[in-house]
């Protein structure tokens, strides 16, 4: 089944018979997808010795007409049992008559799954048809049992669990800011505070996604779209899907098959938000043990209590916070650092001193040399005074800025303490909500016959 183009006989021996067969097979597929019936004209092609498709087509036409298909079915199965079973299962699914397949055909057509081997296109087509209800509940149960037999969750570790979680609910925010820390978002990044809030938020997102999948599945099951094509309505849902592509490849009309993916890749893709809801329901069933374990871990993390003492960065300086208030020693150290940063080092004002000395000298010389030199001395003294005034203003401005920063630091420290109290009050509500989310998630992914 891996290469549908690898026919079991040489068709070049009778090219006319092969052409007639392919023309009828193509018309057959078109009619099946359009109205669930065979072409009105009887099959006019000749048998090709050793080739499974001619008797398989006769068997399919007989099944659709309500006749006994045993003779052509036996001949086709004797030539290639697996391709015959796959052809009949997919053709009847596309036609809307999946209930007419024999119970053994699905097992023969599907073959074996393995974690270390890619899923064939035929297996994926049957998987999709069964998930959409083409074979009724028995078809879904068949696929579920095939997947369960591999015990996929038993082969995954903690790192793999995160991959499943990311597939189910991608786009998780890097930081979750609870209401109590809206004014201090940087505190929400502290591991001691981030872990419970992040766990509770992730659990809520997983619950919402699981509810979405199960709700869509239930809506699809109760919709008016029939699982059989008794009304002869066009089966447009299959036109661009894998079953039609596989059937065309089986009868020699399709091109080379695209790359095949692993089982885990298919399941992860089926869990993503844009996936087919029918496939998502089956993938959710497979991932149920993983999600239950993740939910338990997240619920436990959401119950973690914040530490009694916490060191936070306020205005770029570490301050230790206690329930009764900020630690005096760490606060004093932060204030000293702010003072040191905000106070520029100013040396001896030599320029002012030189201007003053020169001004005094000019004034003294002005008594002898005249009023011009005395005027220069007065100007120099004025410049010295102006420089001194600027220096004092700068010192006062620095002092005011430092005082404002220190006051802001104290205000932030007090506010952070109150925010931690509010965060602690939120803990009970957060833990209760997480417990409800975990219980509901467990109920939604519950395994058993209802999963089908």
Distance between the termini: 27 Å
Helical amount = 55-70%
Overall domain count: 2
**How many beta-strand segments?**
3
Strand content: under 5%
The side-by-side strand order for the widest beta sheet comes to 1-2-3
**Topology order in helix (H) and strand (E) letters:** HHHHHHHHHHHHEEEHHH
How many alpha or pi helices? 15
- Sheet/helix structural class: mainly alpha
Q: Can you describe what's shown?
A:
With 452 residues, this protein is mainly α. It has 2 domains: 11-303, no CATH class; 310-441, no CATH class. Helix content is 63%, strand content 3%. It has a 3-stranded antiparallel beta sheet.
Question: Which features does this protein show?
Answer:
single chain; 452 residues; mainly alpha; 2 domains; 3% strand; disordered N terminus; disordered C terminus
Topology:
Layout: H1 15-35, H2 53-65, H3 70-79, H4 81-95, H5 103-110, H6 121-131, H7 136-148, H8 158-168, H9 191-221, H10 242-250, H11 263-271, H12 277-302, E1 310-314, E2 317-322, E3 325-326, H13 328-342, H14 350-369, H15 371-444
Antiparallel strand pairs: 1-2, 2-3
Helix pairs in contact: 1-4, 2-3, 2-4, 3-4, 4-5, 4-6, 4-10, 6-7, 6-10, 9-12, 9-15, 11-12, 12-15, 13-15, 14-15
In short:
The chain has 452 residues and is mostly helical.
